[in-house]
Amino acid sequence: MNDLTKDQVRQNVRSRYKQIALHEVNSGSCCSTSSACCDSPDDVSAKLGYSAEELSNVPQGANLGLGCGNPQAIAELKAGEVVLDLGSGGGFDCFLASRQVGETGRVIGVDMTPEMISKARNNASKGGFSNAEFRLGEIEHLPVADQSVDVIISNCVINLSPDKPQVFKEAYRVLKSGGRLAISDVVLTADLPTEIKNDLDVLYSGCISGASPVHELESILIQSGFTEITIEPKDESKAFIKDWFSGASIEDYIVSAIVKGVKP
Predict the structure, then answer these.
(1) Distance between CA atoms of 259 and 99, rounded to whole angstroms?
(2) Most buried among 56, 177, 194, 213, using CB within 10 Å?
(3) Nearest to residue 64, comparing CAs of 93, 84, 86?
(4) pLDDT for residue 171
(5) How many Å is the maximal CA-CA distance in the chain?
(6) CA 53, 55, 58 angle in degrees (round to 5)?
(7) Angle, nearest 10°, between helix axes 114-127 and 3-21?
(8) Positive/negative CA dihedral, 77, 82, 85, 88
(9) 8 A C-beta contact, residue 224 and residue 171
(10) What is the mean predicted confidence (pLDDT) over 15-34?
(11) Are 11 and 163 in contact (CB under 8 A)?
């Protein structure tokens, strides 16, 4: 993918999520930006593994019904840790993480969409989340200091990047020694048809055509320096993925996965 195409992808994704932040389109189901689904964001998130307690512990409007899992549930967060959320959206996962790390901890959300950053900051103010902050930036060029983060979480965002090796290179840079990744994302289980691969307008920003095969993702993590790598596909995720784009049988090509790794 040449630089122009990479920039086109970023602009497309930014435009779609700007519309979601401004309620110009329905966020639909999970990563999908389709308006076909009538589930509420809380209904969608319940299917992804969020508890009723978690859903009630965030400011109204923070949960946009986006994602493909519950990364903070697998992150084993501890009091006092510094957590970084890649692609933080309205702040949903950040607010859940902030309760786990407590007053002595800190949560940083990074998102490349200005409207999402504004939304998250307003939500933080409404909810009194003084240990959560939101920074505008691309996940390929994180506005975060070297070796300053204990845990990186992300919910179905890295697949949207046109330069995944750079994302994990940056993740490695900002993590402390012993720091860890706890990511929910989608992975390819079969080659996508050409018409799906090339549908930049909807399927890339909907977490479909940017997904990587497990072996490719593992190779990127190894090359970035991570150890103790696990990528665990979740076949049960097909139950909600099939609703992302009706009639496309997307579940035949992708599933949600839990991705973990440690910086030595």
Answers:
(1) 23
(2) 213
(3) 93
(4) 98
(5) 49
(6) 105
(7) 40
(8) positive
(9) yes
(10) 64
(11) no
